[in-house]
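User: Hi! I'm working on a homework problem where we have to compare a predicted structure to a textbook description. Could you give me the structure for the chain below?
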Amino acid sequence: MPDPDLYYELALTLLPGIGPQLTRQLMSYGGSAHAVLHLPPGKLRRVPGVGDATVQILTGPARGQALARAETSLRRAEKDGVEIIFYTSKRFPTRLKLIADAPALLYYQGVADLNAPKTLALVGTRQSTEYGREQTERIVKGVVPHRPLIVSGLAYGIDILAHRAALAEGLPTVGVMATGLDIIYPAAHRKTAEKMRETGGLLTEFPFGTPPDRYNFPARNRIIAGLADGTVVVEAAIKGGALITAELALSYDRDVLAVPGPLGSPASEGCNALIKNNKAALYQEPRDLEQLLNWDAALHHTGKYRPATTYAPDDFEPDEFALLTVLSAAPGREEQMDNLAWKAQLPIHVVASLLLGLEFRGVVRALPGKKFSLV
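Assistant: Happy to help. Predicted structure tokens:
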């Protein structure tokens, strides 16, 4: 087995009834997936949230079945060029890791950087109009100077329009799927998905062979919202998946923008309601997005792109790099000390000491209100 740790991590996520939150709970107790899957029943019962039914799953026949599936899936992933990323990996998307209901494991096929300096989600109705198509293309063209990663859901309507507009402009784009990576849904988007694999990517939390069950789509939406610095709702009915994604983004403290539409148009009722209820900022031009996400700070006065500073984990201690990771994902690359401690899962006194050292090294700077930002 090429990666024994990943073998057990994958098996843990394939057990029935063991969701992402319980996976984290078990990992925090056991220390590793291998340890969790070898704990005796008595010790498992000491883990908060674990009862007799869960113990039976972790120690009974389901455990062996999950291990067998994990071995098959790893072989399939190696054959198909799929990367399997557990939440403890440095490769796991940092922005996504910060949300409370993040998936425990991802399947990824592509070349785009899931931790790109800038990411933008574009979502909307499946029943898009010509107005929606024009606005989607206009938004994507407007952010080209920033070279962001464009994220959407590969669905009919605004989603596929966003992916195709990104491909046309040479921007990386990732489609978050509600199926396994081996099932492109809808099948009509297969050619676009194949192009995305070459310059962007396809991403899912669902194992190989997972069909497009309707319950998977709301789960997919939280990944779209969690991956992005901000979400733009281009067109949306008064009810639907796009508004669910917007609500999720708001709950994650991420910025939401909405494109206003013609009064009386069913395809724009949701966007207009978001703006009216102060749940989304009005999007009229790229400047609206740049100011809200603080992207304008990364442009020279000439308008040319200036890439954000990136940091290599080998140059810092693990706790230092954890703080830098949180700051890199924060709006404007700045955050309050208390939030840094919470998001990095470090004691406040440790964070204060680390920030002082990073400030002396010229990596961060102190701001008013106990805030710190990357230099």
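For your comparison, note the following. The two ends are 42 Å apart (CA to CA). The chain is about 45% helix and 15% strand. Good luck with the assignment!
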